[in-house]
């Protein structure tokens, strides 16, 4: 299967290790994965802040860059939801039809397309999982990420109280409403600390970055890790 990695802006600039983890994981599962270097922003920021024309140009560029692949995999529920939900509205269903259905968030690609939940990972740590808003409400990932985590050798998955509540990031929401955003994140961090987890996992690094900042300021001692990074790990180390 010829698979393209849609890295996303946040991962490319701030969390490149997540992209490397996706490549490691998918190659281990037998995928022929490529990184189209002409890829750019998907346009989500532009559309969400009232610049649909700029977003439309980026959408058409995305469709050109990723045309012809069997699948396009993104380690981001947020950006995958942007492509799947907004592109048909931006460029029309006919123009989007060839590529948009092939765009998958990582966990749904693993579970629905490859048909696997045990990816051969080993990670002997206590982990709690935060389902981000776009993955939960936009893509409706359901229990796909936790089914994958439950198959990781040595991993203890601890339920997160109030898991479905927003962390307060919301892209520009955190910039426009900083006090509300910080209060929401404070509630989320309180729930995370109540689990006794060593690691907070999510499918979106933007939310992990937001929560991780508060965890660090509170010296909580909880690491943040993207789902891909845990699933790519095979060494039983502490």
TrEMBL record:
GO terms of molecular function: oxidoreductase activity
Name the GO cellular-component terms. cytosol
Coiled coil, from the record: none
Q: Which residues form the Cysteine-rich domain?
A: 3-83, 127-211
The protein's name is L-lactate dehydrogenase complex protein LldE
Q: Which organism is it from?
A: Streptosporangium album
